[in-house]
Specification:
alpha/beta, Aspartate Aminotransferase, domain 2, Aspartate Aminotransferase, domain 1, four-stranded antiparallel beta sheet, 14 helices, globular, binds pyridoxal-5'-phosphate
Amino acid sequence: MKLIFERSVPGRRCSILPPCDVPETDLGEFGRTKELHLPEVSENDISRHYTELAKETHGVNDGQYPLGSCTMKYNPKINEYTASLPGFTGVHPLQPERTVQGCLKVLHTAEKLFGEITGMDAMTFEPAAGAHGEFTGLLLIKAYHDRRGDTKRTKIIVPDSAHGTNPASAVMAGFMVVNIPSTEDGLVDLDALRAAVGEDTAGLMLTNPNTVGLFDKNILTITQIVHEAGGLNYYDGANLNAVMGVARPGDMGFDVVHLNLHKTFSTPHGGGGPGSGPVGCKAFLKEYLPGAGVVQTPDGYCFAHHADSVGSVKAFYGNFLVVVKALTYILMLGREGIREASQNAVLNANYIRTGLADAYDMAYDETCMHEFVMSLEQEKHAIHVSAMDIAKSLLDYGIHPPTMYFPLIVHEALMVEPTETESKETLDELIHAFLEIHEKAKTDPAYVQSAPHTTAVKRLDEVQAARNPRLRYVFE
Ligand SMILES: *Cc1c(COP(=O)(O)O)cnc(C)c1O
């Protein structure tokens, strides 16, 4: 397709600017000296450009998106409606508190409800994404030890099944990472954990259900081991989709948690974002939270700065409109609906898992939570068809591939997460596609190895794309 710059024709316009109503100022030496290369196109050109772009890609509005660990659930349209209300979009973060009472009520209500869902006492909405929330949460843990003069606690324990952002955030927050292995059945190895904790343990980072989709039945023992060693427990709540309304990190022994509103709470990811990664904590960590919280007084809502804050991690109050969308989602579902969403997410994952278990090797052969992992290792050796080949083949069915080659502890991994927002018909379509591809791989492996066959672009050179990305248009 043509790029927007290639559609450009000098002098073509799509908007007429209103007359300037402020005095013109000469910027002098700060003025632009080179021409500004903006595409010059009509509204029609722009509209077609974006429609064409949308057709070349795959989004949750095009078809299923069973991308494990990412919870690509449908984004309800009502979220967009509430987030576009002028009372939310027309405010300025420096307005006097009494003029933004509605917005403060949103933050206050969201803190209360997310606190209830996670079992935490206080929350900040500043972090803009999951990894940003991890970093913020780890700063709370650091502050806790530092303020007590316990400065030798420099290590964060992370299991080998962890999401890659966990060790990265720990290092960014100034900790050293101690990796502990998982057991054969994909859970935390308790003996390894006991051996790893000590006087230098700042805390543990864990997600439960873990990245292979299993709920760790030893969770209370795990968090206790860390507490007894003097460390704190951090819960990676990016994917709360299996347990929201059912089980709470706060009751499992966790002290800090982050949520990905752009996963579990139905707000868009990536290009449709921005994200939001609020961090919740127990009361004893509250005063370390970034920036200000919202409190309710007889005179209305107002900001209250945290007494011993680790400092702000983002300007003002985070991606506020994303919080509006997520709050809309939980208010629409209600207490029962939230629980039902989790139950259906788990049911849907198990429906697919059992539908595929005769053909595909399951990495862990037991009831899963909201996602499951299979391994294509056997196929890779026997018929040279890899996890990548199967994933690419799904594109020909109008289905986005599952997560590939993650978690690292499973070889040739495919990680499938359907979410609760798919119907039985779409789940059946996915099962059918997977089974048909598996059959095809046996009779005509070359066809599967060269998939996709129907998309705008075929196999991309991923190494080249990662090593030498071309991210901007080069003018002649
Ligand atoms: C997605 C995810 C993250 C990171 O979230 P971002 O918003 O992408 O930074 C962290 N942990 C887990 C388990 C995740 O699935």
